[in-house]
UniProtKB/TrEMBL annotation:
The keyword Kinase applies. GO terms for biological process: carbohydrate metabolic process. It comes from Urochloa decumbens. This is 3,4-dihydroxy-2-butanone kinase. One of its GO terms (molecular function) is ATP binding. The lineage of its organism: Eukaryota, Viridiplantae, Streptophyta, Embryophyta, Tracheophyta. Belongs to the dihydroxyacetone kinase (DAK) family. Residues 1-299 form the DhaK domain. Keywords: ATP-binding, Kinase, Nucleotide-binding, Transferase. The keyword Kinase applies. Pfam families: Dak1 (PF02733), Dak2 (PF02734).
Amino acid sequence: MAARGKKLINDPNDVVTQFIEGLAETYPCLQYLDGFPEVKVVLRSDVAVGTYDKNYTGDRLNFGLAAEEAKSEGYKVEMVIVGDDCALPPTQGIAGRRGLAGTILVNKVAGAAADACLPLEEVAEQARHAAKLVGTVGVALSVCTLPGQEISERLGPEQIELGLGIHGEPGIAVTEHQRVDAVVTHVVKQILSLETRYVPITRGDRVILLTNGYTIIKCCCCISSVKIAKLGATPIMELMIATRKAVRELQLEYGITTDRVYTGSFMTSLDMQGFSISIMKSDTTILQWLDASTKAPCWPAGTDGDRQKPAKVAVPAPPSCAIKSDKMLQQSRELTKEGCILEASIEAGAKEIIRIKDSLNEWDSKVGDGDCGTTMHRGAIAILDDMKKCYPMNDAAETVNEIGATVRGVMGGTTGILYDILCKAAYASLKGIKTVEAKHWANALQASICAISKYGGARVGYRTMLDALIPASEILRERLEAGDDPLDAFVVSSEAAMTGAESTRHMQAQAGRSSYIAADKLASAPDPGAMAAAAWYRAVALSLKSAWCHSKP
């Protein structure tokens, strides 16, 4: 039996009414039409408006009825129909092409023309002109779930659907999930097809691109404008990635320049996940209407202006690992015994993190956001890549500093910052020491712990990586002061690190995302950050002992 979709609603029958009430409370520029809630219409509070809609039979009938009723009461009414769907072949009947997210661009043109006090006939003509210039194609990863209804199983977990309508009507094809670049390439090609010639856009034209959110994926080609519509639950990050590809595809494959690019939620379809691309041919008048100011809640700000300006401004950056590598490698082309041991130890620690990636993610899914293993894995891979190119292994301090630069560049988030702080503090402690011995590494570890505690606020018992590193540091210093063999001291301290990490199962988190999790939930897994720290520390300690023993004559 299919499951019902989970939604944060009250009675499914009241969803539209309560949504409109919340919308009007949020935006003072909106008001109900007289007769609400039986008449579910929202208007601008400062003007009277006419009406038109997108091409669906039900929509045309309802808006047509409204138009006729308005006429019968003496109102002057024009009706404009938008059919921007480029996914389906030309229809043989009277239905015509479906109206999709390209309607949003036509709405904006008509609204701005009306706001400029053009006569109704001219407003309608501007809208019809815009409607002829736009095309759209949608893509969905999931089908929307109506309030109170069962979840649709039309699409499998590894399938996507091309060419859907905004109400979730089936598209032209169901295919296997693909990289978004491939999907966007197909969508743009469909919109600009020379066979259907749905939009009058050719090489050398200028267009407008729109990415629309919370609705079926669609693409629109119109008046020098390309539009990408976001469906349902599609994150803005994914929409931006699709927009990036669409702009490049237009420029490189079709010789078409984008005058404006809009990305966001404009025409929505409940929880459907996907996006649509709309492309509109651009001209001076269209741009004038699109750039006109508006109080429409979801119309993006800051998108007007000259797109001939570079997308990025070059800013000088610190020398990267790759830039510094030649000089470093020249200085340390032949590794000393200590350099070889350091290299082997770093490699061992990175490989151990790679090995336990899935375990870290599993623990983090129970007490955090589930990506600790992925984040640490990304840093480990980068370290293995950079260490052969630009780590001066004969200089321990500089090598530690370079590790910090590596993780800062690829790990991101809190974890990346903490490990960069750890490396910077260790570097400061080791800098200037010609021959780095065990006591110096112990001091560097202590300095790193102090820095992390200072800036992160964590202490022992807070359920963080310090619950592994602090016991390791204490045992290492204790064993070295007692005169133990340094290699044995490192191994014993690594055991303390692992014990400390495991003990986090019984701690109530005082820092990080885990601090928001109930104690009984935390008991199901150790802190993944502590386990990661203990894992690489233990691997480094064991490698040190093994490499040193093998290096003896």
